[in-house]
Specification:
This protein has one helix and eight strands, in the order αββββββββ. The chain is mainly β and about 190 residues long. It has a single domain (about 1-185), classed as Porin (Beta Barrel), CATH 2.40.160.20. It is globular, with a radius of gyration of 17 Å.
Length: about 190
């Protein structure tokens, strides 16, 4: 368990050292609780998942040649993260790219905002709770998230996370999590 916790902290330390870009999305750490088996078949995973994720600053600055409503597409961020199951079932480690689409700003005050995010990348699973068919190397992780930026430094998120072998997976060979997270920008 200590080794897994250390593996979650290493990406945070690495990306925390990356300077924020003044012309793009800042670096961010997201921490939260996820409930496994949010989709069928339900009940294979006991406990909850403690999730930690680090997002790099935007890889590219805003592309001024693109219309404002489309600039998010050219500004992905690298994500590194993982989840530790509180009951010792499936442990997860992942990396990939995240795109954040701003939907609205100034909802309750001048600095807040609503967004949706999409993530894709490889994921490694380990532990006794790995679903049959997902224990043979990297799997495909897809994530979708809705976020509310409370202040420029604090965000609240609801996440849905799906892991499977893609087209090669058998029915039921997937892992779905849903949960809440807090994001801290730096």
């Amino acid at each position: 368990m200590r080794r897994a916790a250390a593996l979650l902290l290493v990406p945070i330390a690495v990306l925390a050292s990356v300077p924020a870009r003044a012309d793009g999305a800042p670096a961010e750490v997201r921490l939260g609780v996820l409930w496994p088996d949010a989709g069928p078949p339900v009940g294979r995973q006991p406990g909850a998942d403690l999730n930690a994720e680090v997002l790099s600053p935007a890889l590219f600055g805003p592309w001024t040649a693109l219309p404002a409503w489309l600039r998010w597409a050219a500004s992905p961020r690298i994500n590194l993260g993982g989840s530790l199951n509180t009951a010792g079932a499936t442990q997860q480690a992942y990396a990939g790219l995240t795109w954040t689409v701003p939907l609205a700003t100034g909802l309750l005050h001048r600095e807040d905002g609503l967004s949706i995010g999409f993530s894709v990348g490889p994921e490694l699973l380990g532990g006794p709770g790995v679903p049959r068919g997902l224990d043979g190397g990297p799997q495909l992780r897809l994530g979708a998230e809705i976020g509310y930026q409370v202040t420029p430094r604090l965000g609240l998120y609801v996440l849905f996370d799906h892991v499977s072998g893609g087209a090669m997976a058998h029915e039921g060979d997937s892992l779905n999590d849903v949960g809440v997270r807090v994001g801290l920008h730096f």
